[in-house]
Amino acid sequence: MSREIVVVIGVGGMGQAIAHRQGAGRTVLLxxxxxxxxxxxxTSLRGDGHVVLSQKVDxxxxxxxxxxxxxxHSAGKVVQVIHTAGLSPIQGRVEAILRVDLLxxxxxxxxxxxxxxxxxxxxxxxxxAGHMAVRLTPEQEAALRMTxxxxxxxxxxxxxxxxxxxxxxxxxxxxxxQLRVQAASAAWGGRGARINSISPGVIATPMGQQELAxxxxxxxxxxxxxxxxxxxGTPADIANAAAxxxxxxxxFITGTDLLVDGGVIAAMFSGRLSxxxxx
Length: 279
What we know:
The chain has helices at 13-22, 35-47, 62-75, 94-113, 138-146, 166-190, 206-213, 217-226, 235-246, 264-270, and strands at residues 4-9, 27-32, 51-56, 77-83, 121-125, 194-200, 257-260. By secondary structure, it is an alpha/beta fold.
């Protein structure tokens, strides 16, 4: 078994594509809250020749995330950490989205920042939603960037009474992901490692298809139609971006966000798609 460990947290469409892309010749440690799906994906990867370990994780629990990080560290050299787990607005209430998408990312950055190897790299999957209708003051952005993880959900503008809609919670959490990655890059750099985020657009994963079939599906199709590429993204598009950020060609890139949205945000800034139509 390879002593180089690739950790993939979240085994949805993007997580699976990244595990296939990054796992060859390494040991893949898969983690997810849903044990049935986790074992199904692990079995599929093993059938394709990958060496796979698996562990249930609740990313909203520090103890659970720490246990996963310790498992990875004890298995070998943690060379890559990819965090894809999250809830979309159609999948959860405000409180759940904030715990998983905001707090969960903060905990993963901290706990894996303690075990990632020299020369290693990490990628957090954020969202183009973090570039859209999230209107935060500089003070709020600073708070999201630097507040200790245990206090994040107690920030006044993060409390459920202030964030009343799942879509708003999702956008806030995804902007926070980008900010937390910026802040974490210094600590990861102290270990000789890099950390970046990717902000996907509308991706044809099961989660993405749920959103397209939901009440905002028409708006999402309008976003795609206005974009420069005019198509949905695929899990492979995100896996390709992750491979670049995790690879040697990106050795001078850390603490940044790579927008992989087919041109939706560019369409907004160019006037082809109004911000009101996309929010």
